[in-house]
Amino acid sequence: MKRVAQTIRLRPEHRKEYLELHSAVWPGVQAALHRSNIRNYSIFLHSDVLFAYFEYHGEDFEADMAILEIDPETQQWWKLTDPCQEPWPDRGDARQWTELTEIWHLRPPGEDATD
Questions:
Q1: What is the pLDDT of residues 30-39, one digit of tens each?
Q2: CA–CA distance from 37 to each of 3, 33, 40, 48, 60 (Å)?
Q3: To which H or E segment does residue 42 belong?
Q4: How far does Cα 49 stand from its chain's mean position?
Q5: Strand pairing category for 38-46 and 49-56
Q6: How far is CA 97 from CA 48, 65, 111, in A?
Q7: Where are the alpha helices (DSSP H) in the chain?
Q8: Which residues have CB under 8 Å from 55's CB, separation 6+?
Q9: DSSP class of residue 115?
């Protein structure tokens, strides 16, 4: 399993719209995320900063993300959510969100720290 953390800014003038959209995420978007092997996806908000966390349970992250990006319903969803977000200037090759580097992870007792 791959843990992914990401961040982006929320445009203050779109806060209400963004929160309303995420109060009822479209079932088709949720299904596309599941098909792309994404689990335990959460988005958190602090002031105007969004933080997302999800777990990837597939075999080919890049291929699954490419499939997600061409999903028609997900593309329609992004047409609504993208204008609400302001990417960080250092997002690199990412479409919108900046992926964060994991620096520490509390593992269950006895779990090997090399995985």
A1: 999 999 999 9
A2: 12, 7, 10, 28, 9
A3: strand 38-46
A4: 13
A5: antiparallel
A6: 14, 13, 30
A7: 15-22, 27-35, 61-70, 72-81
A8: 1, 2, 3, 4, 38, 39, 40, 41
A9: -
Between CA 67 and CA 79 the distance in angstroms is 17
- Record the pTM: 0.89
Q: Which residue matches tokens 């791959």? A: 2
Query: What is the token pair recorded at 74?
Result: 């997900």
Q: From CA 18, how far away is CA 36, in angstroms rounded?
A: 23
**Is residue 40 a contact partner of residue 1, using CB atoms and an 8 Å limit?**
no
Which run of H or of E encompasses 107? none
Give the integer Cα–Cα distance in Å for 30 and 28. Answer: 5
Q: Which residue has the tokens 């319903």?
A: 73
d(CA 51, CA 49): 7
pLDDT in tens, 31-65: 999 999 999 999 999 999 999 999 999 999 999 99
Q: What is the dihedral of CA 42, 84, 61, 3, to 10 degrees?
A: -30
